[in-house]
Design brief:
Blueprint (H helix, E strand, L loop, with lengths): L10 H4 L2 H6 L2 H21 L7 H6 L8 H11 L3 H15 L13 H37 L4 E6 L2 E7 H26 L18 H12 L13 H27 L7 E2 L19 H22 L11 H29 L1 E2 L1 H8 L8 H12 L1 H17 L4 H7 L1 H4 L4 H7 L9 H14 L1
Helix pairs in contact: 3-7, 3-9, 5-6, 7-8, 7-12, 8-10, 8-19, 10-11, 10-12, 11-12, 14-15, 15-16
InterPro entries: AdenyloSucc_lyase_C (IPR019468), Fumarate_lyase_fam (IPR000362), Fumarate_lyase_N (IPR022761), L-Aspartase-like (IPR008948), Protocat_PcaB-like (IPR012789)
Pfam families: ADSL_C, Lyase_1
EC number: 5.5.1.2
Length: 451
């Protein structure tokens, strides 16, 4: 079954090597072993079990256990914890037979599985934060470099007034700043210990439940929750929705970038490299491979988030079906989001920007996209509504007769009675119609500097 391998066939494309390892079979069992060791430490410190159990567990490694046997055992057991504990006990029985009965003392399967998932999530969030910091640093440099690099603004995929490439990048950065905050806040709420025993009362430990819990949390360096949360799944659901929001923003970046990379636009290009973006039959192709990852992830993630939300409705003290539905779903959310974020870093850090084409496209279809600028210049003379109607007529004339907007304006007596040639030219200067762009960019950069 190759459960020792951290890599599935599409992991190199949609995940990262680090995250694939965290959520591999090995990665999960490593964290389950860590839970059992920490539990033994806590129980020993509370004088519930004899000293030596934690050392016996510490001697066990993932390579000691048969992961395929554990996976197959789950078919009958309904979860991985039962065959895992059986395998762990078999090893300890062979080497320290007098200690085997104290393994997993007072805990239940969900305690080990949930806490292992929490530990996997904690490590993944740490890696996500590294990539979020990295892409943010790269965006700051590009935003400042391209603060005044003009290109058409586009609404409903049609040209609008000009924006700058730096402003578009600042929009991405602004959103990623919010995601960094969300991820930090979600981590603080959701990365907590799970330990409740059979029905969430720790009855098997008598009055020692709370002190053992504190020691267990300390051993794992996890916050101690107010109480066990076996069937209260808002923590995992919050992690899922937080990842979903991040994946959505990354998808928006992929959408923008791939549209600007179309052959007839080609204002930006993804990084070049040997065999990157090639076609099996068309030698000229330079496909937006990284953008496709961002977009595919944004398509897949909402369904996974929906599964996590649906799985919140669980029965009494142990879920039947909902809990089980979470296991691979949350893993996949972390895998996909991490892979998308890494792909976005590649897009941002090494993209090629064609400033000349951006500028040329401002003049497309006669530069009529600057009609708003002229309309507001006229509005100061004749009022907003009359100016809008007049510019609509002039713009249509320009398009019908294949004139530039400037030529059509100079042919209009009504316009020329109100605006001089100099005023018309000023209104048609795209660099003068950027509004508060500089302020918005400065706000985003300042927020990044504040951290």
């Amino acid at each position: 079954m190759a459960l020792n391998s951290p890599t599935r066939i599409y992991d190199p494309l949609f995940a990262t090597p680090e995250i694939a390892a965290v959520f591999s079979g090995r990665g999960q069992v490593e964290q389950m072993l860590r839970f059992e060791w920490a539990l033994a430490v806590a129980l020993e410190e509370a004088c519930v079990i004899p000293v030596g159990v934690s050392k016996a567990i510490e001697a066990v490694t993932v390579d000691t256990l048969d992961l395929d046997e554990i996976a197959l055992g789950a078919v009958n057991a309904g979860n991985l914890a039962i065959p895992f504990i059986s395998s762990l006990k078999s090893y300890v029985l062979e080497h320290s037979p007098s200690l085997v009965e104290y393994i997993h003392w007072g805990a239940t399967s969900q305690d080990v599985l949930d806490t292992a998932k929490v530990l996997q999530a904690r490590e993944t969030i740490r890696l996500l934060q590294i990539d979020l910091d990295g892409i943010s640093d790269e965006l700051v440099v590009l935003v400042q470099k391209h603060a005044l690099t003009l290109l058409p603004g586009r609404t409903w995929l049609q040209h609008g007034p000009p924006v700058t490439w730096g402003l578009k990048l600042a929009g991405w950065l602004d959103a990623l700043q919010r995601h960094r905050v969300r991820l930090k806040e979600a981590s603080a709420r959701c990365i907590v210990l799970q330990f409740g025993g059979a029905v969430g009362t720790l009855a098997a430990l008598g009055e020692l439940g709370p002190p053992v819990t504190r020691r267990l949390a300390h051993a794992l360096d996890l916050p101690e929750p107010s109480m066990p949360w076996h069937t209260h799944r808002d923590r995992f659901a919050e992690l899922a929705t937080t990842l979903g929001l991040l994946a959505g923003t990354l998808g928006k970046i992929g959408r923008d970038f791939s549209l600007l990379m179309q052959t007839e636009i080609a204002e930006v290009l993804e990084p070049a490299g040997e065999n990157r973006g090639t076609s099996s039959t068309m030698p000229h192709k330079r496909n937006p491979v990284y953008s496709s990852i961002l977009l595919a992830t944004a398509v897949r993630v909402p369904g996974l988030v929906s599964t996590m939300l649906s799985a919140m409705v669980q029965e009494h003290e142990r879920g039947l079906g909902g809990w089980q539905a979470e296991w691979e779903t949350l893993d996949e959310l972390f895998r996909l989001t991490a892979g998308s974020l890494r792909a976005a870093r590649h897009v941002v850090s090494d993209c090629a920007v064609n400033e000349d084409l951006m500028r040329q496209h401002l003049a497309a279809i006669g530069g009529v996209a600057l009609s708003e600028a002229v309309s507001f210049a006229l509005a100061r003379k004749i009022g907003r509504s009359p100016a809008h109607r007049l510019l609509a007529q002039v713009t249509r004339a320009a398009l019908d007769h294949r004139l530039t907007l400037r030529e059509a304006l100079l042919k209009s007596t009504e316009v020329c009675n109100q605006l001089s040639v100099e005023e018309i030219d000023l209104a048609l200067d795209p660099g003068r119609y950027l509004g508060s762009t500089s302020t918005f960019i400065a706000n985003v950069i300042a927020a990044e500097e504040r951290g």
